[in-house]
Amino acid sequence: MEIKIAKELGFCFGVKRAADMTLAEVNGEVINTLGPLIHNPEFTKFLETRNAYVADTVGDIKGKKVVIRAHGIPKETEQEIQENNIEIIDATCPYVKRVQQLAEKYYNKGYSVFILGEKDHPEVIGIESYAPNSIVLKYEHDIPDLPPESKVALISQTTQKFKTFDSLACALKKRFKNVAITNTICDATEKRQKAAMKLAKEVEIMIVIGGKNSSNTTKLKEICGQIVKTHHIETEKELKKEWLKDIKTVGITAGASTPDFSIEKVVEKIKSINTPALTA
Ligand code: SF4
ipTM value of the model? Predict the structure, then answer.
């Protein structure tokens, strides 16, 4: 059996940076991450072995340092941490930071700030805090009834779709005279999806690795599942021998929150079931 690995998979730049920053801080002392650093239970357990524990709220922080995860936090939460004299290790992804700064800039210049995104997503909640009264929207019909001469700015949650952003931008240009548009979408998710789709067309079965609560991993499973038989697993322990029976090519992909060690363990397990030639 041949094992094929997707060209783009696993940790994106921002998540890898956050993981590296956290690991650089764990020198025996207890530290906290505000919320799970990534949506991957295996990685959360791994961090616990290094004395890095999840704190769900600022009140839960037990250590002297707290890591801010890649999708950032609201301004007020940052202030609360500072007031409690807790040192901040800011692992907010620089791409997310840029969106927060743009939100603040446009707000200060008197624009109505529109954010394309999911209302309840922590990244969006963080961005909103930089532009009070900003409007989170997804579709043209969500655009509020403002006078045509209003100054409006459009930015986006980093993981939104380019197509949706373009449609909204067009709709805003038609409705308002003064529109500032900055595409703040990061292409890490799209690259992983395209690579997974390409690979799914070349193999007989796909294995998608990542947390069951990771939305980008679930999306990869959905995309591959439309092309070929696909299984979503969190760890190598969930692999079933019968999935690989009579299979000649298996494809592997993983969500942006899946650590390399999880991917490697799955590959090793498949190798132990068969003796494949590994190609990338
Ligand atoms: S998906 Fe993009 S914006 Fe989000 S953490 Fe990863 S690199 Fe940063």
Answer: 0.99
